[in-house]
Specification:
- This protein is of the alpha+beta class.
- It has a single domain, classed as Class II aldolase/adducin N-terminal domain (L-fuculose-1-phosphate Aldolase), CATH 3.40.225.
- It contains nine helices and eight strands.
- An eight-stranded mixed sheet has the order 4-3-2-1-5-8-7-6, sandwiched between helices.
- Helix 3 crosses helix 6.
- The radius of gyration is 20 Å and the shape is globular.
Amino acid sequence: MNDLNEREQICEIGRRMYQKDFVAAHEGNLSIRVDDNKILCTPTLRCKGFMKPEELCVVDLSGNPIEGSGRPTSEIKLHLKVYNERPDVNAVVHSHAPHATSFAVARVPFPNCMLAEPDLFLGEIALAPFEVPGSQAFADSILPFVKHTNAILLANHGVVTYGKSLEEAFWMTEILDAACRTLIFSKLLGGPQPLGGPQRLTSDEGKLLAQTRQHFGFKDPRPLDDPNCDVCDHFLFKSTWKSVGVCDTAFNSSEEKPQVSLDDASCRRIAERLAELINDKL
């Protein structure tokens, strides 16, 4: 196998996905572009934590099988859509990372200008409408977004990330899921605050982060020199929200929120639960 290195990479990232609870059973799929018309991908119905290099499949950019005794992942059309639309992309990761998927299930858009890392390394994150996994409509659901971001939440399903390498695509998933976890925790802690929940950076601070992305080699499709471009207000994808059924109340500081007063016992229970969740991750 002249693609043994790529096969070993997929098996290694699959193990890491499984160990981090980004996938369960045979969920999720991974792929690498090995040449202009060959995609190495995971097989269907195989746990990502226990794959072997010889079990992987090779398809062309139309999805036709080239190598492998098993069937390619049932969601290969999603991967092919990314590769055909983005010639700069060499790897795709699709997972059900739990905290990011919670945003996708609730159809809550990931908020910009709250955490530095996702703003620096991911930019604006899209939320694609629900379609049946594995279908052509599912693959086509990312079309409005795929050229403008490297991370897409898939409504009521999961998340897909992609990049120049499999390692890069995977750490985009890690950054997004960690950020979603932090935002969920901060929402629990921020309820009693006068402004209700976590606070955003200013638009100017958000633009500084977006401009800093270029120093890390990331292109940003937003017109950062335009004074009307508010990077903290979902500049690229807000117009698509109605068709997706987005609920923008969880982190929208412009909406009036009822003030909540918690007694000491309730605060204690929340603190104890947070401690349990954090200890589980240590």
